[in-house]
Amino acid sequence: MIVETAVFYLFAAVMLIAGLRVITARNPVHAALFLVLAFFTASAIWLLLEAEFLAIALVLVYVGAVMVLFLFVVMMLDINLERLREGFWRNLPLALVVGAIMAAEIVAVIAERYFEVASQAPPLPAGYSNTRALGMLLYTDYAYAFEIAAVILLVAIVAAIALTLRRRKDTKYQSPAQQVRVRPAERVRLVSMPAEKDR
Amino acid sequence: MTDSMLSGSFAPVLPEIFLLAAACVLLIADLFVKSERRTASYVLAQLILLGCALLTALVSTYSLRRPVYAFGGLFVGDQMANLLKLMAYLATAMALAYSREYLLDRKLLKGEFLALLLFALLGIMVLVSANSFITLYLGLELLSLCLYALVALNRDSAASTEAAMKYFVLGALASGLLLYGMSMIYGATGTLTISEVAQHVAKLSGNAAQRPFLVFGLVFLMAGIAFKLGLVPFHMWIPDVYQGAPTAVTLVIGSAPKLAAFAMAMRLLVNGLLELAVDWQQMLVILAVLSMALGNLAAIAQVNLKRMLAYSTIAHMGFMLLGLLSGVVGGNWRNAADAYAAAMYYTIVYVLMALGAFGVLLLLSRAGFECETLEDMKGLNRRSPWYAFVMLVLMFSLAGIPPTAGFYAKLAVLSAAVSAGQVWLAVLAVILALVGAFYYLRVVKLMYFDEPADTTPIAGSGEMRLVLSANGLALLVLGIVPQPLMALCFAAIKAL
């Protein structure tokens, strides 16, 4: 019990520090790596809550795929950091004030409900698989929402292609289909020419 | 088919399923269309809209008396949803007709434009019929994602790209706020289904310890709604996006999505959190006053017509709120149906006015020329008396001058506010509407009393001229005989 609590606070602390570093790191590559760290610790906290599927999906999908792509993009693009940071310090005081007010309000509202609550979630029954439970929910109760999420992905594909695909007229490309279908007669062109006279 | 059979089946969702399948077909079929004018794709898109309308009419016969639920309560089909869906089809079909020539001139009429437009419509339908926070949010994202892409569709224009970027970043922020609010409400009530949220809120709202928690979530929900409606102080994106986007896309953004935003407000505030009306009505009062003041005053300073209409949108949405905020008076709901029906009527009429106004801008634009400044409206009467008259009707309607529909919409909303005892608010609204009349009438003055700077004859395809004329006349007719549409709105709200 105490060990679990200690582990939770450890991961939570690491996650918060990593999250803070994501927005304060000078180097965008470092920021992306801190985001990876934040994802890892978040998945560890999910593991503590016995949500194995979500934990693994988070590592596989976000760390494995999304963040790698993200790192690629960050490294490929030549981003002028100084220009991006121009407004940061200037707007920081205002942002801090607004943020502090928001945080204080949230604490004031939530504190009395949650800070004293120390209840433990009931233990899961033996043989309970949360992958199965998620699957059951997704494909029955939430089938409609699941389908709409799929449509959103489709729209993302269509939009990405519509916004970035450029057909260049001057590129020389090969058409394998035409290459395969070619007939001998098309490869050799016989030109009848009058024989040249000897000098 | 009995009601019980229907509630367990996919039947109420037929229009959505049809639209999704048909949009995918269009996306593929368009690859095989060779012609530059894309007539086949265009006609197919219009037919799809017609099919949706027929299916919605069919489905609506089942939900006349009471709402039908599908997919375990994620989806609700009621009269409000059906009416708003039909209006959204109409708005989309009109937007297509208006924007076709404009897009052809700029080589933007591609299959992707049509597909994204239809997917945006699907998002509107999902949002309008949402009975769960999840479907509401997904519908909103589907709609927004399509709109971001449409704004950026003109890739070579720096202004469009900048507008899309602003829209995207601010939209993502607003989505975050909305989700945060939803999670708060979920934390308090333990359910995502809006009709169940309402039951829990009714129990919890009396509890002094729970109420602040709910109101806290409500604040964030309100921020999300205000962003979508474009209310001050969440309006920053509107002028830039309206101006930066190609006019055809501005037309799309300014029309059907307003219906969706209205539905979103109705679902969250009225269906879900009616017990908290005392709290959200106060918030709406602030939003309404700020929006009407800033919208009307800032519009005066604009030279760019698109920007002027953007500020006018802000002012109009603020005016529409007068209806939404006068539903419940001191725990008494007798006024509610009248007030919400007035707000719904206002929204529908506003959509028609926005379609017409941007439609005229599209009509006057041609290849290599964007009609977007006040100068471009000079002497329109000399060039085409009929379209000058249509624009006159549109401007009178936007300003709220009788006998146009805009006048009746304003009257209905004001009378709702007065009967709710918000007299000072109604007076303020009238004064600000009078201020607003200045910039609408300035357009009329330019059209009728100034010499044309540019005497090119007005082009525009036959169908566009026809629809635009019908649009202008409809506003006149709706102003003289508003009762049928008002009765539909009233019935829709009554059946909620």
Structure overview:
The complex is a heterodimer of chains A (199) and B (496). Chain A is elongated, with a radius of gyration of 29 Å. In chain A, helix 1 (2-24) runs antiparallel to helix 2 (28-48), helix 2 runs antiparallel to helix 3 and helix 5 (130-141) crosses helix 6 (143-164). Chain A is mainly alpha-helical and 199 residues long. The N and C termini of chain A lie far apart (108 Å). Chain A has eight helices and no strands. Chain B is mainly α and 496 residues long. Chain B has one domain. Chain B is built from 21 helices and two strands. Chain B has helices at residues 3-8, 14-29, 39-60, 79-105, 111-128, 133-151, 158-189, 194-204, 211-229, 237-244, 247-254, 256-272, 277-300, 305-324, 336-364, 380-383, 385-399, 405-419, 423-449, 462-480, 483-494; strands at 68-70, 75-77. In chain B, strands 1-2 form a two-stranded antiparallel sheet. Mean pLDDT of chain B is 91; it is low at 1-7. The interface between A and B is medium-sized, with 24 and 35 residues.
What is the count of helical runs of chain A? 8
**Oligomerization status of the protein chains:** heterodimer
H/E series of chain A: HHHHHHHH
What class, by secondary structure content of chain A?
mainly alpha
* Structural class determined from secondary elements of chain B: mainly alpha
Helix content of chain A: over 70%
Number of strands of chain B: 2
- Alpha-carbon distance between the termini of chain A? 108 Å
Shape of chain A: elongated
- The tally of structural domains of chain B comes to 1
Elements of chain B, N to C (H/E)? HHHEEHHHHHHHHHHHHHHHHHH
Rg from Cα of chain A: 29 Å
Please tell me how large the radius of gyration of chain B is. 22 Å
Percent range for helical residues of chain B? Answer: over 70%
Residue ranges of chain B: pLDDT <50 for 5 or more in a row?
A: 1-7
- Cα(first) to Cα(last) distance of chain B is 22 Å
Q: Determine the mean pLDDT of chain B.
A: 91
Instruction: Provide the spatial order of strands within the biggest beta sheet of chain B.
Output: 1-2
* Number of DSSP E strands of chain A: 0
Q: Summarize the main sheet of chain A.
A: none
Characterize the biggest β-sheet of chain B. 2 strands, antiparallel
